[in-house]
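Q: Could you write out the predicted structure for this multi-component system? I'm mainly interested in how the pieces pack against one another.
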Amino acid sequence: MSDLQTHYRTCNICEAMCGLEIKHQDGNILSIKGDQEDPFSRGHICPKAVALQDFYNDKDRLKTPLKRTNDGWQEISWEQAYDEIATRFRGLQAEHGQDAVGVYLGNPNAHNFGNAIMLPRFFKALGTNNRYSSASADQLPHHVASNYMLGAGMLIPIPDIDHTDFMLIIGANPIVSNGSLMTAPGVGKRLKAIQDRGGNVVVVDPRRTETAKKADQHLFIRPETDALLMLALVHTLFEEQRVDLGHLESIIDGLDQLAEAVKPYSPEAVAEACGIDATTIRNLARDMAAAKSAVCYSRMGASTQSFGGLCQWLNNVLNLLTGNFDRRGGAMFPQPAFDLVRDKKGKPSSYGRYQSRVRKLPYFNSEFPVATLADEILTPGEGQIRAMITIAGNPVLSSPGGARLEQAFDSLDFMVSVDIYLNETTRHADIILPATTGLEVRHFDVFFNSFAVRNTAKFSEPMFEKTPDQKHDWEILRDLSLHLTGREDDGVTPEMMLDGGLKHGAYGEQGMSLAMLKANPHGVDLGALQPCLQQRLQTEDGLIHIAPQLYLDDLKR
Ligand SMILES: Nc1nc2c(c(=O)[nH]1)N[C@H]1C(S)=C(S)[C@@H](COP(=O)(O)OP(=O)(O)OC[C@H]3O[C@@H](n4cnc5c(=O)[nH]c(N)nc54)[C@H](O)[C@@H]3O)O[C@H]1N2
Ligand SMILES: Nc1nc2c(c(=O)[nH]1)N[C@H]1C(S)=C(S)[C@@H](COP(=O)(O)OP(=O)(O)OC[C@H]3O[C@@H](n4cnc5c(=O)[nH]c(N)nc54)[C@H](O)[C@@H]3O)O[C@H]1N2
Ligand code: SF4
Ligand SMILES: [Mo]
């Protein structure tokens, strides 16, 4: 028997980035607990972390490439799988054009650092504009708002939950979800701390949620009327002269247009539609303006709905007008060690660069909305999708009208899934490529450090080495790219790219590097969020655009 070993890593199941302490011996996991020394999560975990060992031990996990045959699923070699995929994809693209192959990316890509870093190479090799992901069933309105107001879709304001005195939560249930676009392990405790320091939590949700139960006030709203509520809050701030732009006053552009645009939306005018009386709305605006610090935070319920774009714009407007943007206790901007925002200034937005073929929906963030993927597969004509690759996604379950997608996948000439399970989506594939996952992978949160309520950085080594015939997701993407292009491997790994990003990032001069993170297995604390928007702003004119025309035009709806 070998010695008892302790492994430290970050849980990558959800956005909360909890540090784990895992005791193991001879390949058996003895315990999974919260890492008390993780400077970010300080010991917090939820029951899902324990599922990491279930992924590892699960007999149903796929470990070998599978090919669909008339006699059922057959195990094939990696080389055969890559050859067949490259031949079929290239053949269909030669016959029907580059866009004949569609790609769908699921949520785990955002939690997988190898994929986050290697996907651009894969996209370049595949050369299709027919890209889709779960992001369009999730948070794209946040990116659109940041893009139009701040010049970069990834520069997303995050609630400074640990210092705020007033938190208005619209359409989110962080006590259950563990937070989203607010990476904050232990949200429940953090919300309670707001109340313990004399602050208030207000929830706007049509449902009696776990988070609402803990709030000081719960406003039941008619679904999809949040934009009206927020317009009325903005209206009240102007009407009652409660606008205070704080330190950003000189760089906010469009205030007059905004004031004009919200004139029709008095609390009295929207009360009936929202199902919330006018006095309550006025008092909410007054409370937010009067609080020492305050933040409006809205998520899925105010994003994945007909007016999600308006909601996420108005969410930022409320934080701006109350002087709570880029301010302690308000909506702040993380400064991650691996920065996805640096040097984006002046890069044009892809919003509307193309329209989807069938429903003419706008392209954004290099993708079309997944809601129209089935149309693009099922509708004949030039540009029709003939083949698909899904990577770590289950759109048959997760996308709107998923049942129709099943029918669509069945109609394809060829389909590939990179996934660890045979499920509702992958069972329609011709070839399934299984990746390593969970405890078998290296981990660094490329995305969620950009959305975290504190600046920290942590790298996790694999706890279990993969077997020689297993592949990491990023290796699959690399190998597919090489087979598609016929190029030689240049030997670049995600670790090398991460190291480069860390050394050239905001903490590079202080010695930040992959080696430094490897020497600190609990993670490195980089401090509380600090006001930094004037340095991080990516608009060409250096101004914050509080009233982009895109949104003013949308008010008519
Ligand atoms: N009705 C309804 N629909 C929703 C939502 C909702 O609340 N209600 N939520 C929306 C939201 S917020 C999101 S993010 C989307 C999620 O949408 P998806 O990402 O499409 O759905 P998931 O179920 O998360 O699918 C994850 C897939 O990745 C596989 N997988 C897990 N780990 C790995 C790995 O390490 N490597 C690989 N290659 N595969 C892996 C799993 O087996 C599974 O097939 O759903 C959206 N759709
Ligand atoms: N256990 C578990 N945790 C998860 C996930 C999971 O699959 N399982 N998924 C993770 C992912 S990918 C994400 S993106 C996050 C999502 O995290 P959250 O956004 O915090 O969670 P949701 O449950 O989607 O919360 C949406 C809330 O919006 C409300 N709502 C619906 N329609 C409206 C409306 O019109 N107006 C308003 N004001 N509210 C409305 C709903 O009642 C619900 O309470 O959760 C993450 N956490
Ligand atoms: S809250 Fe999320 S990151 Fe933390 S242990 Fe649970 S699943 Fe993992
Ligand atoms: Mo999500």
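A: Regarding packing and overall arrangement: The chain has 20 helices and 20 strands.
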